[in-house]
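Quick check before the chapter quiz. The format below is the same one you will see on the exam, so make sure you can read both the input and the output lines.
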Amino acid sequence: MSLLFQPIQFGQLQLSNKIVIAPMCQYSATDQGNVTYWHEQQWANYALSGAGLCIVEATAVQAEGRISYADLGLWNDKQRDQIQTLLQKVKQLSPMPFAVQLAHAGRKASTDKPWQGKGQLAPADPQGWQTVSASELAFNERDVKPHALTSDEIQRIIIDFAEAAKRAVDAGFELIEIHAAHGYLLHQFMSPLSNVRTDEYGGSFENRIRLTLEVLSAIKAALPHDFPVGVRISATDWMDEEGGWNLESSIGLAKALQQLGAVYIHVSSGGLHVQQKIKIGVNYQVPFAAEIKKHVTIPVIAVGLITEPEQAEEILAKNEADAIGLARAILYEPRWPWHAAAALGEQIEIAPQYLRCQPHTLKNLLIQFK
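Here is the expected output.
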């Protein structure tokens, strides 16, 4: 039997298979952080995909924490209520659980939509604002320097993560992922390339990971007992020669996250520094997941240029990861799990309305929702 189509547990949440739709920003929310019809059609499409779990895009815990003015938010109850209405619709389509990735962009906030090509918007721009970070170090020379967060402001962010998490549960999400990757705020605190603080949140490894651990603890304390919370990390800054965050640091972080009750580690990389030297290729991030997996007992999700069913199956067979995250591949082909089931000789649950569309290669491989 295919490993990819075996169930997996993330804490108390059981997935029907090990295909995880990784969060992908859509830059399609209103300027107040609310969902639009774009999200309705996209989430519905994912609900019908046959994947085991969908984690929706990075969703800001503060207005200032959005990557762009068109990002989703969960910093107020109106956003919660609109998401709740949308999830109630989507969940009529399939039993697939939905999760949300809670995030704060830090110094990489206040940008235009990426396809507009303008980069960061200055605070004086009508759609821009002053960014914040661990230290007054800009992401690149064109950006306005971020404001270095005070201790009181850090505590406010921790509270806002927890409050957003409670709204996420009320809205109907069944798992929460903390975004501590890709050069956003929590990653900015962890990397010595962006954090030159001298207080309890800077300097030593223990101090630099403090904020991420405190966010996880605050969220866990605010939610129902054993509600599943996972964490996405960047395993490396791809700046080893410059003393950046690296795999050894990520192993230490993963151990600490597991001890605090994280139900999985989602392993990506990069995004912290404009001079990163990423060696992109097939499975280029899988070795990071494989190494972290040796040091924790909770599931590890691998992601990054995993595009073929056989490729995903081999990663699991080699015990390099416990689940497979798909981003661009499933954005391009939302029915990827159907084709994977056919390629690997497995059955997958789909909506009965689609049963008659099966080509010969999918005969007897698709079954309707129970």
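If your answer matched, good. The mean pLDDT is 95.
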